[in-house]
Amino acid sequence: MSVSYPNLYQRSILFEIINIKNPSEIVSAFTLTIPPDSIEITQGQRITRTKTFGGVFIDDYGLDVAKITISGTTGNGDLRATYIPGKSGALEQYSGKDAIYAFRDKIARYKNLLVGKGFESYEMRMYDFSTVPDTTALDTVQNSTTDGWVVSLDDFKISRSKDRPLWYNYSIELVGLYPLPTPRSKVADEMDPIVSPTGDTDLATLSNEVNQGLATVKVPTAKDWLQDAIYGMRRCINAVKAAYSWSANLLNKIDNVFATLDDLEELCLEYIDATGNLVTEASGLYSKIFEVAEFPGAAAVTAMSTTNEVMQEIEDEIEDSTAITETLGNNYDYVVQLCEETKRIAARIVNFGKSQVVDTEVTVQVNGQNVTIYGTISITADSAVTLDKLAAQYYGDPSLAMLIAVYNGLTNNDVVAGVVIRIPQTVRSNLVLDNKIYSWDRLSNYGTDILLASSSQGAKLVIAESGDFSYVSGKDNLLQAINLRLNEQLGKRLRLTVYGLSVAIGSPRTNTAPIEYILSNLRDTLKQDPRVKSIDNIKLNGVGDSLYVAFNVQAISDSISYEGVL
User: Fold this and answer.
1) Regarding predicted confidence, which is higher, 134 or 250?
2) What H or E segment, with its residue span, contains residue 103?
3) I need a labelling partner for 316 at 20 to 30 A (CA). Which of 189, 286, 338, 460 fits?
């Protein structure tokens, strides 16, 4: 049962984003649900000290901006109240997790809320409620003597610890521009808005006024020549001022347009970065999701196939559009890489969905008997595939070909190269359950590696005709790995300690200790490879100083026979 803490916010910190020209307009606000653990305000000085042979010279320009550091916690799963300014004491209830992310979205990322409005028209304010004598006056905090600052955000950090994993901690660093209720300092009086000319006529009018003003600047002949000259110059200056004001206003509007574009670009890039992180994180987490949830293969194929197609369309549009390419600039490669990464993950999920054993029972009637199906495995037929061969391969009994035929609605004449055939699973099992390293794609369980050839010096690289390394995959890759592990020269084989034992001398037939040592050595050495599930049917044959060995390797999804010399 959750616990309520209704009054902690009354001694906490309020953050607001307000419109400078209309402070009553609150864009976003959040009150910390729990008073901070610590608040540190460092008031610097704008002092420059110059040390010379003649002494120390100091230039003191007064107070510098303050550095404010606030740290604390928003709590755990218990609900706590937070104050909403401007709503007559309205409250909202937040858990620690919800509070920390609301704080982040409303305050740390407040610029996302101002896209298209111009950041320069808004500012962040911070108020200390612990100095408010009457909690009923919280809505008038802007007009009170509450300790507050106009601040600029530097860093916002969220952290958790193993000591209290359910508590959400924060640390926020701010620059205090000036304390409240000090009025906002102005570099100069704000210029009244100027109506922008709307056509060539206005431009011509301004140009004529400038020319007229210049025409009045002439060499006077009368005794009041000075007054005439000053009057003419003033007219000229005023006309130039008008033209400049109109131009400046136009440039400001253009600059606002570019500012909006910059804000949009920043938002897009932030989204891209966030999406990239999610994609990267997803590539390591989606397999865990499949382990703990019932993931229907059909849904995976449908959803992820659509995702793959959409990402391909986005990538094609980016590559074909010169305008988009120029807009993205240095981020072009990153966006394309993001599309490729998303497509790759989608493709892997599709492959998994096609081969996943769905935990759903379906009853199929074959030859008058009911057969329970626990999902299917999809395979693509080649020219040599027949229903009988598939039944022999997957069931060990060619007579069960009728089950595959009935389930797919096929005959042997319908089986041609390229046809996708679903193999019903009659035994409930998890596909590649023990495979913790390799791809969910069943065809990639053995992995791919660089091909090595045996030589008198051990192993050597094989170079293809193209000049690149040759690669080995499938079962051959696992066989190569087994050879390397059993090769004593490469040091991969576990040390065999049977040699030299007194119990092994003179009685090769009656003493089984050496044989047990060798068998355990083989098993322990090979099972270091995560693709190897078990070792069976080991046969040993000693000829001279050579010991010939043969055994069956039960891999993650197949059985492989191996013969070699130790």
Assistant:
1) 134
2) helix 96-103
3) 286
